[in-house]
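Q: Convert this sequence to structure tokens.
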Amino acid sequence: MVSRGSKIVVGTMVVLGAAVMGFQALSGGDLFRTATNSVSRSLCGAAFISQVDPDRIFREEQLPNMRSIGWAVHYHVDREQREVRTTVLGAFGARAVYRPGLGCLLVHGGDAVPDVAGLGDGSDTDGTSVADPMGPNVVEPNDPAIRQAFDIAFSEPDVKNPRLTKGIVVLHDGKLIGERYAPGYGPQTPIWGHSLTKSVTNALVGILVRQGKLHMDPRIDQLLRMDSGLPFDETGGPLNPMSRMFFLENDMARFAAGQPLAHPAGSTWAYSNLGYVLLSRMAMDAAGARDAVAAERFVRSELFAPLGMRHAVIETDVAGTPVGSSHVYASTRDFARFGQLYLDDGVVDGQRILPEGWVGYSHSQTLDTGYGAGFWTNLVDKGSVPVWDAPWELPGLPRDTYFARGAFGQYIVIVPSERLVVARLGISVNGGTGIAEVVAKIIAALHSPQESRSQARL
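A:
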């Protein structure tokens, strides 16, 4: 005899199945394809780049945003083929393929995976592994006040909206004075940086300007500052321009270039993933990097390798354009090293990476906002970011603070007056991170008497 509960479940599945088929017929199923592509891409990165448990990442990162259909989502991680396939009730199939040295690639429909022979698994420019000068072991802070700040970072004051901090690294005067990681993560674990990638794109543009291969003009300036006239592209529900670009397009830059302007150029600030993908394509064109392998080699040789970002990769779309809005994976140490580059005015080991004045330009105010040109600033202490209803600033931190910020609570906080860089990575889907409080407590600890602190050179 079939129970009443089983009848309800079966009936629900039949109704949902009919709805899925009807939705597919009416709209092409873009909503469900967006969901399955999101799952495939995320879990591919977890399994093959970060090398953490993809089931855990699904629960922590994907499921909170798709609970209404989560039970109908099925994914398969194929370790032999190094790919992830996802469906909803057997339909709307999505496939993400790991390519050594290039990260994961969404492959739509029956499209073939572009040939990328010649780039290995290693994390330096030639695909070889290089030792981390900070050493392989976690550097515990000697200062109990900094340990208490870490306790806050990893605490869970709201269990319904967990912080899920995965890594935190603190550099002071260019030295590693402390770090901590969640179980399963460590100093060599690449983590998805989301929109920290926009600050990386800022650096790539700066490098090309220094090299004389790219010249600043109003268009590039406006794209960096997000006042180019492109729309605020994270609005309008799950099928907004950002999600369409990320999950439904093979050539993201072409899609972005075809979007109509919503405002006169230079008049209105609007958060723009579209603009940073366009910048990425413009940068690679200037560098002569026409495909994914050439692009990755340029980024590694000109930025990642000089900084010692030994676990970093920037993913591309099918057309070979690096997704300069959001698709860098790097270890928490790597992201901290990136912040140190800006704290040191674009110079590393005596080598100038960024043009003189570029760092100041990058955190100079855009219009009346708290945004600069690839970084957020602490210059505005009132009002909020449009649409998101989030503060522009990190409250309680010095006015000269500026920071890279990404979805799910990714931060690189730079405080020049304190010679401080704090990188925090995690999966804070719906809750806060406590990052402002954590950095404030670290600053207070630096001003308290302390006989010694654990220090490791970059």
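The chain has 13 helices and 18 strands.
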